[in-house]
Amino acid sequence: xxxxxxxxxxxxxxxxxxxxxxxxxxxxxxxxxxxxxxxxxxxxxxxxxxxxxxxxxxxxxxxxxxxxxxxxxxxxxxxxxxxxxxxxxxxxxxxxxxxxxxxxxxxxxxxxxxxxxxxxxxxxxxxxxxxxxxxxxxxxxxxxxxxxxxxxxxxxxxxxxxxxxxxx
Length: 168
Description:
alpha+beta; 2 domains; 4-stranded mixed sheet; 33% helix
């Protein structure tokens, strides 16, 4: 009986240690967003100019950023076959918006493709342009006021999200 108890305790202890290590690994993979395009960012060269860069760690296949706030400037419903995704929000449109917010990265999700950023809290079949608005709701609301003051982005909204990459 003692031998069985020892064996069961060893198995449960191993499972607990494995689960704790897996949880710690998941937390370590949440990267900090590089929200200021003028600031140094270690992994910026791994991202397209229209993607919001974040720390991915080394040798990643799947990575996710820490939560952040964005102001969604524009969104476009795509055709079901996504044949219009390259035309949904152009790079010149993004660059024009970037000039308005030089210290906040303006980013675009056109279509989902493996190896490129996708973003949580976004409906399927939608392309959007957003601007990084910070880590807190207060920062996001302050940026929303600046966005509204431009008069160029009717219906701009604040959204909490994460950036993700799935390279598989």
